[in-house]
Amino acid sequence: MSSQNHSSNTKLSDKIKIALQYVMPKHAISRLVGKLAAAKMGWLTTKLIDVFIKAYHINMSEAKLKKASDFATFNDFFTRELEEGARTIDQDPTTLCYPVDGAISQQGDITEGKLIQAKGFDYSLTSLLGGDARTAAPFQKGKFSCIYLAPKDYHRIHMPMAATLREMIYIPGELFSVNPLTANNVPDLFARNERVVTIFDTEHGALAMVLVGATIVASIETTWAGTITPPAGKDIFRWQYPAKGVDAITFNKGDEMGRFKLGSTVVSTFAPNMVNFSDDAGPETVTRLGEHYATLVTEAETQAAK
After folding, report:
1. I want to staple 265 with a disulfide (CB 3.0 to 4.6 A). Which of 63, 68, 212, 217 is the partner?
2. Is residue 240 packed enough to be buried (19+ CB in 10 Å), middle (13-18) or exposed (0-12)?
3. Using only C-alpha atoms, what is the Rg of the chain?
4. What SS3 state is found at 251?
5. Per-residue pLDDT tens for 72-129?
6. Taking phi first (over 0 means left), then psi (-120 to 50 degrees means alpha), and beta for anything else, what does residue 2 get?
7. Catalytic residue among 127, 177, 219, 264
8. For 117, which DSSP code?
9. CA distances from 280 to 197, 235, 277 (A)
10. Residue 148 forms beta bridges with which residues?
């Protein structure tokens, strides 16, 4: 399906919403919202949080801090910690767990260097990971999964499996919304938005987790480097990390690795013959941090496939 077909099937009100995203000063608005979200405004902050909780039906019973007045800033609330036991991490070493609460947008095979964004839209793996074919090479003919985090969701990101950090890449870009409406109508959405690419080595192959920015996403952070954006620039930045030794950055399955201040999307890519996704998981499947996500391919299965 072409983008023209998409346009013809879109309601006028939705067309207006999409058109506005092309012309609005998305970066300026997002940075302003970020400053407000980080401000300590006393009773006004508490009121805003209360309104947000009610508007999005947020379950505060699972949060470590329960009341709006417990949070000094809106960001503190949005990146709220869950109370102990609110999520159970699947500890089976032969499986992956969901890295976030959210909903699957798309997942499947990386075919001819392309990932599916929506019906009729795909985008480039190489572009997603920063434009370097060498970075994308380990994931060609592998698999991918894209999970959307709605405003109501828990916004800390955790590791789906044990891994060692190899590289982090900051890629400047647009700040389109990443909600389903935009994903269905804006070409190359995840490869054009600002994003932070994190690449890991595992015992089973390479893993990339791409943290995609969006309109009014005030900040993307990682646990090892803090705030990556803002500030933002026009250049791609790369950080390399040692594979071994005291300076190596390693994670166990379920460890926190980053967070969004306001909602966005995580795109994960996997090496070929590394994972098989659950049969009952696909587009619109609700994900819950820690639950079974995929099964690691065994050596015997790999040999049988050859």
Report:
1. 212
2. exposed
3. 19
4. strand
5. 999 899 999 999 999 999 999 999 999 999 999 999 999 999 999 987 789 999 999 9
6. beta
7. 264
8. E
9. 28, 40, 9
10. 103, 265
Q: Which two tokens stand for residue 200?
A: 């890991």
Instruction: Based on the residue annotation, tell me whether 264 is a catalytic residue of this protein.
Output: yes
261-284 residue pLDDT tens: 776 899 999 999 999 998 888 889
**SS3 of residue 78 by DSSP:** helix
Is residue 2 annotated as part of the catalytic site, yes or no? no
- Burial label, 77 (beta-carbon count in 10 A; 0-12, 13-18, 19+): buried
Residue type, 93: P
Decide: 212 and 192 in contact? Cβ < 8 Å. Answer: no
Alpha-carbon torsion, ordered 203, 206, 207, 212, to 10 deg: 160
The single residue of 76, 101, 153, 201 carrying the catalytic annotation is 101
Catalytic hit among 6, 122, 155, 158: 158
Single pTM value for the model = 0.89
